[in-house]
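User: Second chain of the day. Same drill as before.
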Amino acid sequence: MTPFPARRRVSAAASRRFHALAHRLARAFAALVLAGLAAGFASVGPQASAVQPVEDDRMAEFDRWTWPTPPPVAIASPFRAPPTPYAAGHRGVDLRAAAGASVLAPADGVVSFSGMVAGRPVVSIDHGDGVISSMEPVVSAVPAGTAVSEGRPVGTVGTGGHCEGCVHLGVRVDGAYVSPMLFLGGVPFAVLLPLT
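Assistant: Same format as last time:
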């Protein structure tokens, strides 16, 4: 005697009925899952619609900076936020510019740094309220501590850096990098809308 009973032969019709039932059950289960997800999203709808966008007065004040490179402005590489503070990303925009071209202060401020960083000439300007712009490679004779006006030359395009024939413009707000386009008027503020 075998421990298992003899296998019954299943007819083709019974097999089709079984598979049809299995498909109906799978569709019904999928419909229940989707209905549950929809109910879950619907329950957060009123809360989501109550969220208001945060307005940062510092960005409103600086929303129309002057481009630091001569026209026509051409962006070689856009800002790409890293997923975490120390992950890879592109913490600024690269603007096409010929070596030796003038680099302008994007807004009023005080030069907070003018010198070499990792073999590249860098100029940083403190615009107040925790907003700092940095440009490289920029050869500058303007020493740290010098007040600069928007649109005035702060140096010339140097060589080196990660993008030949361009100037990298980075902006930090309270030490965190943000897209310079927020200050140059190129990125609209996000508006949160209700899900319904």
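Residues 12-50 form the longest helix (39 residues).

User: Great, on to the next one.
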